[in-house]
Amino acid sequence: MTISSTSFSSKRRPRSILAAALACFDQTGVDETTIAEICRKSGASTGSIYHFFDSKQGIVGALLVDGLRDNYEQTRQRLNKASGAQNGVRTIVESLIDWITRNRAWARFIYATGTGSLTAKHREALRQLNDAYFEMVKAYFQPHVDAGEIAALPADCYAPLILGPVHEYARRWLRGGVKTSLGQRKNVFSDAAWRVVGRSQTVG
């Protein structure tokens, strides 16, 4: 796992704590993991962990924010190089698939972790990331909507419609519920997403 350099991981010690915590969470679960186990895994003192993250829930929040930001930044960079309506859809699908494939433990953690117990700071950070993601997709597709190449849909519907099937398959694959890897299904999900939002579809 490579923790993003854009969030809590700007210093070496927090990065090693987050990586160790993720390994513990992936092996034994968030609820069962103790701060003492994270200390042993990371080599950090209890004081260091509480200094950087306040609590185990602080670590959970940081991992969620960092993971979603890392995926957002990867998608943003790829979309900046993409062109065309269908290629944009494919880029969004493939970016998520590639991120999950490279960061399986992180993805398992994100899919399994709720946000109800997060601090207000982390909930706000997640809200801002979600808003930024929707705005990024809207900004890319708007010219293609105007040209009649992308369905005219509510802006906040594009990402769920494009990525919903990927998320569902990823959850099953990460749990071992399906044998064919997510990466081998890129064309299936890209083509399906294009059939949903592409060309001349409209909503009333």
Description:
By secondary structure, the protein is mainly alpha-helical. The chain has one domain (8-197): Tetracycline Repressor, domain 2, CATH 1.10.357.10. 70% of the residues lie in helices and 0% in strands. It contains 9 helices and no strands. It has helices at 12-28, 35-42, 46-53, 56-81, 85-102, 104-112, 120-146, 158-174, 186-197. The protein is elongated.
Compact summary:
This protein is mainly alpha-helical.
Give the SSE layout:
Elements lengths: L11 H17 L6 H8 L3 H8 L2 H26 L3 H18 L1 H9 L7 H27 L11 H17 L11 H12 L7
Helix pairs in contact: 1-2, 1-4, 1-6, 4-5, 4-6, 4-7, 5-8, 5-9, 8-9
Characteristics:
mainly alpha, Tetracycline Repressor, domain 2, elongated, disordered N terminus
**pLDDT below 50 for ≥5 consecutive residues: which ranges?**
1-10
Number of helices: 9
- Average pLDDT, all residues: 90
Shape assignment: elongated
